[in-house]
Amino acid sequence: MTDLLDQPATTLQGEPTTFGGLTGGKAALVVNVASKCGLTPQYAKLEALHEEFADRGFTVLGFPCNQFGGQEPGTSEEIASFCSATYGVTFPMSDKVEVNGPGRDPIYDRLTAVPDADGRDGDIQWNFEKFLVAPDGEIVARFGPRTEPDAPELRAAVDRLLHK
Question: Is 22 exposed, middle or buried (0-12, 13-18, 19+ CB in 10 A)?
Answer without folding.
Answer: buried
